[in-house]
Structures are given as C-alpha cells and as structure tokens.
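thought: user wants a sequence for this fold. calling inverse folding tool.
action: design(structure=
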C-alpha cells in the first residue's frame, strides 16, 4: 500500500471545488468538496487536512487504502465535528480516496460497495430559477432532452405571513408541467415559513407533485412532521443534514419520505452509504441532492447503483446556476455518460468514478476563479428573507 503523497484542491467555475489525491505509487483520485457560497471556508478546512495527511506528516501511518480509518480519524480526532464546512471538506477527500482505490484495482466503485443492483438510474433536472417563470417552455426543453421529471422552486421570496394569492402561481406551474405528461417536484427551499407552507402543501396536493422539498427549514422538525401528517404528498429533504446523526431524528419521527443527502456535504461516499442503509430500515427512499459538478454526480451514481432504496437522482445539467460556459459536461473527457434516455442515464462501467477528469481544463479554469456568492432576498420592508 502506498502513502498519500499530495492533496490539492481546485476552485473552478461555476461554483465547484474539486479535490485531487495522489499516492506515492502515482495513483490518482478525484473528489468534490463543493459547498455553495462557502468555498473559502472549505478550502481552509482542506488546508488543515493536507497538513495532517501529507507534507510535514509524510511519515504518517495513513495509507490511501485505509479509507474508513482516514474517515474516522478526520471525524473523531478534531474534537469538534459535523456541520457543512467540516463535512464538505471530508467529502472531497473521501470521494477522492474511493476513486483512487477503485482505479488502482481497475473496477467501478460500486463493485467495492457490494456490486450493482441496477443498470440505469432515473434522473431529473431543474427548470425555472430562484424566481421561477417560463416553466412550460423549459419543461418542454427538458422533455426534448430525454427527461420525464423536473423540479422547480415553488415560490419567490415570501413573508412569514404573505398574501394567499402569492401561492397561486406555483399551482399553475405544476399544472403546466403535468400537462406535458411529466412529473414535477416542488422545492419550497426552506424559504416558505409555516403559515404559508401549510397552505401551499394543501393547494398542491390535488395536483400530485412528485414530492415537496424542504417544506420548512430542517431545524423545524416538529413543523415538518406536522405538515407531513396533513398531506399525502411525499416530503423530501436532507441537503442540510450533514451526517447520519443529523438524519436519525427525521427518520425516527417519520417526518420524511424521501431523503436527499448530498454526497459533497455529508462526508462523501462512506457516509452516504451508511445513510442510505439507515433510510432503508425506515422505508425511506433516496433521491440524492446534487446541483453540483460531474465528480459529485458520479459519486452519487456509484453509491446509488448499489442501493436498493434509490428513487431518483438530481442532475445539474443546464441548471440556472451554471453560467459562464461551464456545465455538468465540463471538466471531463467523457461527458457522454450524462446522456438521458427515457428519463434514465446508463450506469458507467469504467474504473473508479466512471468519469475521466480533464485535469488540464481544471487547472486552467481554476486560475483566478472567484468564489460563488449565494444570492439573497430582501423584502419590501427592507428585511432579510430566506433564500
């Protein structure tokens, strides 16, 4: 076994953070530590991990093959643990180590996770934006791309108690998508507070959305449970839950039907596999959150290929955040793996993550790349509203 020789990270547009690990034998693995709006914080955390595992600590006993030992070391020896920044940095390292190990062995990662249970995965794409509009035309474009399901933001910004009429347009957008014969997930995005979320859930129910996502912020577990008990629409959430310990109370409460853990936020492939097993015990489906780059999506695909309770996978192809020329098909030599047919993508069969990173493009576009700044909403009274 070879020791870790180097860990590098690359900030690349539109808003992604890639991690590259090389061992002393020259094996390479790629990970993704993207945390939207907090790039610099994750980079700082990665700097501390680099000092731990390479460089001054080159005589460490940590080997690239000991993925679980490295995960546990990173988690437990820092005393403070969890949270989006810490777990995103750990995710980037963990994914890269799985990629490196599987490539060294010449097999896809899913072969190391027990083998595949499917040959293709159902996927969905975004339509609309932070202020959703022109939904029918965008849904038709997605249908033409091969998708059978889409997701949209439910509303623009809302007050804690807003006019009930502010919810009407969401219903009309769902109806427009359904008229095309497509399924529609509706993301409340945590921007809809309880007095409005209860109304919107009820209004949408007759139109049978695929799910409603983050009907409330995840710190309001009792409120989410109450909404789940008043509607037959599946409740989806999880992108702001960063470990199995964060996920557990939601499973125990019965408040969630579809878990949307993010592999770049929750500790990587190692933790995602554990979370999916927990969810299966509660009859909860997995629909991983992934409005991110090709490395994160490939990592999700590898885990979900070996996951019985997988439902559907989010893809960032053409998402409204991908501006400036870079998209899901950037940074790889084999973007054809993301071709959608009949609402599905085929499972990649190549070694590791199944994608071939274009390192020249990564290095070139990382030069001078600016961190992505999260948008925000300001209400008519000058107050800050949930984005």
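)
observation: tool returned 387 residues.
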């Amino acid at each position: 076994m070879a020791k870790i020789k180097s860990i590098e990270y690359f900030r690349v547009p539109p808003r992604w953070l890639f991690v590259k690990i090389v061992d002393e034998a020259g094996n390479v693995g790629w990970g993704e530590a993207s945390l939207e709006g907090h790039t610099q914080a994750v980079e700082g955390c990665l700097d501390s991990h680099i000092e731990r595992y390479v460089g001054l600590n080159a005589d460490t006993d940590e080997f690239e093959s000991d993925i679980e030992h490295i995960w546990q070391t990173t988690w437990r020896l820092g005393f403070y643990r969890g949270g989006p920044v810490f777990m995103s940095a750990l995710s980037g390292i963990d994914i890269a180590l799985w990629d490196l190990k599987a490539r060294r062995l010449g097999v896809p990662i899913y072969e190391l996770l027990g083998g595949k249970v499917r040959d293709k995965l159902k996927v969905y794409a975004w339509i609309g934006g932070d202020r959703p509009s022109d939904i029918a035309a965008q849904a038709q474009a997605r249908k033409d791309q091969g998708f059978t399901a889409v997701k949209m933001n439910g509303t623009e910004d809302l007050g804690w108690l807003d006019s009930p009429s502010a919810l009407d347009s969401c219903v009309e957008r769902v109806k427009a998508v359904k008229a095309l014969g497509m399924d529609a997930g509706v993301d409340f995005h945590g921007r809809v507070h309880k007095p409005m979320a209860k109304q919107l859930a009820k209004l949408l129910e007759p139109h049978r959305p695929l799910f409603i996502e983050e009907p409330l912020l995840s710190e309001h577990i009792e409120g989410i449970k109450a909404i789940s008990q008043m509607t037959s629409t599946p409740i989806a959430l999880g992108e702001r839950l960063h470990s199995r310990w964060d996920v557990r109370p939601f499973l125990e409460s019965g408040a969630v039907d579809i878990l949307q853990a993010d592999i770049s936020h929750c500790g990587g492939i190692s933790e995602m596999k554990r979370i999916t097993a927990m969810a299966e015990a509660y009859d909860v489906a997995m629909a991983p959150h992934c409005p991110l780059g090709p490395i994160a999506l490939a990592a999700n695909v590898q885990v979900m290929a070996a996951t019985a309770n997988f439902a559907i996978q989010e893809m960032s192809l053409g998402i409204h955040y991908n501006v400036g020329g870079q998209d899901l098909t950037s940074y790889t030599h084999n973007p054809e793996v993301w071709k959608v047919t009949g609402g599905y993508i085929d499972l990649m069969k190549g070694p590791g993550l199944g994608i071939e990173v274009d390192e020249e493009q990564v290095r070139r576009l990382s030069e001078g790349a600016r961190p992505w700044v999260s948008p925000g909403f300001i209400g008519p009274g000058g107050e800050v509203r949930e984005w």
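thought: summarizing for user.
answer: Here is the designed sequence. The domain at 4-107 is CATH 3.30.390.10 (Enolase-like; domain 1).
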